[in-house]
Specification:
Chain lengths: ~280, ~400
């Protein structure tokens, strides 16, 4: 995975050039962060038409906004990209968020709980339509099978979400969920598919991987580390943060890792991640 | 020859504005979820040099009998994600998406729209809605919807907050996104006068249109804004044929798309009661309708229905067929030349600055618009040959902020 940062001041052509370079170099995911005045999700969406295979990972906060808004945004990203969507979960509010009268802020101490509830509700939304719910039966005027569509009916301390989304199940069922290694334990334990370890040495990485795998228990979790410490014997992949000017490092990083070139089709299938059953 | 040019928007909703359009030939399952479907429509619209494509949003799923309604097909992808995806596969056409001020956070909305606007080269519009559908509240951690007055008060604060943020962040090629608005209630008009640059309106006659536009221009001027920088664009739902007879035949064919089950589902949703238990060939159950939840709560006014059935009570089947043809927006059945005449009449009477076209079936009916209507308007000197610049503000002739 490669995170392109900074990105806010780049034009579409520059973003696209980097994305295509990452794709050509065999990277599985191109990730974008949020910066002041720059939201990753629309930028990831703009890259759909300029790429063909690479996963598109958008960072997004759980500290403001509603699960329904982000849930449908990521569902749209997955639909429009044919199953290439990923979400890097930022379990806090944006830095320097200005006050707004009609917003009820969640206290810093409650952000971890908010993140857990947020992701749980979003998962329920993505799993609302069974894979075979869409009938499109023109003769009998049955667009969808009501018995194969479920509301989420999430009723928690912070969020109340009835659901379902009004769109069918997306190609992956749900986007690939990415967390930092510094994310709350419960988030890693219950929801993460990919974890980006911040370990700065081989020894620290080994310990971090052990910790993360223990948290995840029986769930398959892929741990990524920086190019300086990543090792196929210790972890599952590389995560590099690069600026647009460093695009030439992409092939070098990918080459050193020696991983297989990126495939095609929905990310969850490519990464052998579990599909959620309806 | 008039130098004032008409603005033409294309309102894309699902497979088309006919509620049964998903049953049309050529409508394939999964179309609405694929970028290619929207890319094809955008390419057509861009070929016709239309000002913009517009996407609404629906923030809830239709229910029936306490469960999901299988007859109605209104899958809507998140508009900002969709217009962002389209921006990299289009060149000049404007892209307008809807975001609710009642249910979203202004910081995120401001950042999403600013990002989309910069990456598209300044072609983004924001349709600002306060969300009138009660059912949406339950998807956004609210038990009920604030009343209209409060919703508009919030909307004003919201838009001000968004504008403050946009002023601090990097600008797009058009400065900042275009503000579109569609509410016509008294609160809506006051809000529009302060905020809107484009108004999507509902007017059925020239006089109605002119009265509204004159009022809005007056309200806008009273706010210290230039009325020429506000474009009023009523909706119109045209059915076109190369002859009148062909157009009427199409109208019949489109009416056939409205399977009774679909009409029943709509009616059930409108009144909050389940019509599927009533026999189709028995008289319309008027008493039950008047006692339906949405009528009793004041959300649905039955007086038009009562008027319609005055004299002779139709059967449920007959009523469903009648309802299929009733539209809020102006409708039209005829040839492209005749439609151009109608649009010209409205435009030159000062009843509007352009139109938001709502094709019954998409993309089929979009080709006719681009290949027949646009040339007819050009022959009358009413529509551009090419885009004047690269941004939506330039295309619409709005205030510049770059």
């Amino acid at each position: 995975m490669a995170t392109l940062s900074p990105a806010a001041s780049l034009g579409l052509d520059e973003l696209a050039a980097f994305a295509r370079a990452a794709e050509a170099a065999g990277f599985d995911l191109l990730a974008l962060d949020c910066e002041p005045g720059f939201e990753a999700l629309p930028a990831a969406a703009a890259l759909i038409g300029r790429t063909t295979r690479i996963g598109l990972c958008a960072a997004a906060h759980t500290g403001v906004g509603e699960p329904f808004t982000l849930g449908r945004g990521l569902s749209a990203l997955d639909h429009l990209s044919g199953g290439r969507a990923a979400w890097r979960i930022l379990p806090e509010a944006p830095e320097g968020l200005p006050a707004y009268a009609h917003r009820t802020m969640t206290a810093a101490g409650q952000q971890a709980e908010r993140a857990l509830e947020f992701v749980r509700a979003a998962r329920g939304l993505w799993n609302g339509w069974a894979p075979d719910a869409l009938l499109h039966d023109k003769a009998e005027a049955r667009f969808s099978d009501p018995s194969r569509v479920r509301r989420v009916d999430h009723d928690g301390p912070i969020f109340h979400v009835r659901g379902p989304l009004n769109t069918p199940r997306s190609p992956q069922g749900r986007p690939v969920l990415v967390c930092d290694g510094t994310a709350p334990d419960a988030l890693i334990a219950q929801f993460a598919d990919l974890v980006v370890s911040k370990a700065a040495s081989a020894v620290a990485l080994a310990a971090d991987v052990a910790r993360i795998r223990a948290l995840a228990g029986p769930r398959a979790v892929r741990v990524l580390a920086s190019p300086e410490v990543a090792d196929p014997k210790t972890c599952d992949g590389v995560h590099a943060t690069l600026s647009a000017g460093d695009a030439d490092r992409l092939a070098e990083i990918s080459g050193r890792w020696g991983g297989a070139p990126n495939g095609a089709g929905p990310l969850r299938t490519r990464f052998s991640l579990l599909e959620e059953t309806w | 020859m008039s130098t004032r040019q008409m603005a033409i928007g294309l309102f894309v909703l699902g497979y088309g504005h006919n509620v049964g359009s998903w049953r049309a030939n050529g409508a394939e399952a999964g179309d609405l979820l694929a970028l290619d479907y929207y890319r094809r429509i955008a390419a057509l619209a861009e070929r016709g040099k239309l000002d913009m494509i517009f996407f609404a949003e629906i923030l809830y799923s239709y229910e029936q009998n306490g469960g999901h309604c299988g007859q109605l097909a209104f899958p809507t992808l998140d508009p900002v994600t969709l217009i962002s995806a389209l921006s990299s596969v289009t060149r000049n056409i404007g892209l307008t998406g809807t975001y609710s001020t009642t249910f979203t956070d202004p910081f995120q909305t401001a950042a999403k729209l600013a990002t989309a606007d910069r990456l598209s080269g300044g072609r983004i519009g924001w349709n600002i809605v306060t969300t009138g559908a009660d059912a949406s509240a339950h998807n956004f951690s609210r038990r009920n919807l604030p009343e209209r007055e409060e919703r508009y008060a919030i909307a004003l604060d919201y838009v001000r907050h968004v504008e403050e943020l946009w002023a601090q962040w990097p600008k797009s090629a058009q400065g900042k996104p275009v503000r579109v608005q569609a509410g016509m209630s008294p609160h809506g008009r006051t809000f529009a006068a302060a905020v809107a640059e484009v108004l999507f309106t509902v007017s059925r006659t020239v006089d109605e249109g002119k009265a509204f536009r004159d009022e809005i221009r007056g309200l806008v001027a009273a706010q210290g804004r230039d009325p020429d920088h506000v474009k009023v664009m009523p909706g119109i739902a045209p059915i076109l044929g190369s002859t009148e007879a062909e157009a009427r035949a199409k109208e019949e064919a489109f009416a056939e798309l409205l399977h009774p089950r679909i009409q029943m589902a709509l009616l059930s949703d409108q009144f909050g009661m389940d019509f599927s238990g009533y026999p189709l060939d028995e008289p319309l159950p008027l008493q039950d309708i008047l006692n339906s939840p949405r009528v009793l709560s004041g959300h649905r006014d039955p007086s038009r229905l009562v008027e319609q059935v005055q004299g002779r009570m139709p059967t449920l089947r007959e009523y469903l067929r009648q309802s299929a043809r009733v539209r809020a927006h102006q409708s039209f059945v005829g040839t492209p030349e005749q439609l151009a005449d109608r649009l010209q009449e409205w435009f030159e009477a000062g009843a509007c600055d352009g139109f938001n076209i709502m094709p019954p079936v998409i993309p089929g009916e979009v080709e006719v618009l681009v290949d027949e209507l646009v040339p007819a308007l050009r022959r009358r000197g009413l529509f551009r040959e090419d885009y004047p610049g690269s941004t939506l503000r330039e295309t619409l002739g709005l205030e510049r902020f770059a």
